Amino acid sequence: MKRRNIVGQLINFRGLVYAPVEENGVIFLFAKLNKDLDLNIETIRKGFPDCIAKRYIGKNRWEEVFIEFEYKSSDFVKHGHLKQLKNGIKCDIIVCWEHDWKDCPVDIEIIELREEYKKYEHEEVLLENPKASTKIGKVTLDDLYRDYNNSKILYEKLHVMIAKYLPKVTRTIAKSGVFYNSPERLFLSIKVQKQGLRLRLFTSGKHIKGVDVISEDGSYAQKWGQFYIKNSSDISSAIKGIIKSNELIKSAISNNENTGWYAEVD
Q1: How far apart (Å, rounded) are the C-alpha atoms in residues 146 and 1?
Q2: Most-buried pick from 46, 145, 216, 241 (CB within 10 A)?
Q3: Domains identified in the chain and CATH numbers
Q4: Model pTM?
Q5: Proportion of the chain in helix, strand, coil states, percent, rounded to 5
Q6: Would you say 179 and 188 are in contact if contact means Cβ atoms under 8 Å apart?
Q7: Degrees (nearest 5) of the Cα angle 253, 210, 9?
């Protein structure tokens, strides 16, 4: 059987689309945050602890800290590191995705990334040119509408319909468009264009009426399709496709399917 990719919740943080589901993902996410945490990495290695770093403590001074990476903080115990502590091997910090170790020693600091990453500015992971991404909060709908009055009317009508039929979805505004999450994962992007709206939506590789393939040769976007809205009469067809797309993303999440831009159809 072909192995499927297993992913966590959608976080769209600095190029990382989904949350970690194991220790390597924790290390990758930590690498996106170490500067924000005032930590300079000297080495990441095999053995315990995983990482040696210097932490800025003010007045041009840095202290040495020893870091262990775990998916859950309680894995520290499962991996036998308490015994290593008793043998005199030092560990100052556990960096994890989830902190679930209730009896953690008070002298070990916990950095729980599932809460920590939310404190910092980040960039959207988009379905197109990554250079088009922008920091959240810096773009408004008015920026997207500029000089496109007809497209503005179309988008506002469409959004009202989305909010009516899919009240639980969330919306993010970025420089290259508007993005809707299920709310667990991205399933729809809308590009405001001069002649109307371009929609790209999750299809799971299935046919949705009126939705065209994106890549003719199937080299990418096998589970995504696109639809254009050029006038108000297109909106009713579009909303039917969007509702179907939302159903498909929920099914994919339930089945632990990869829903990314380069995900392949089984």
Answers
A1: 50
A2: 241
A3: 10-119 (no CATH), 130-254 (3.90.1150)
A4: 0.52
A5: 30, 30, 45
A6: yes
A7: 15
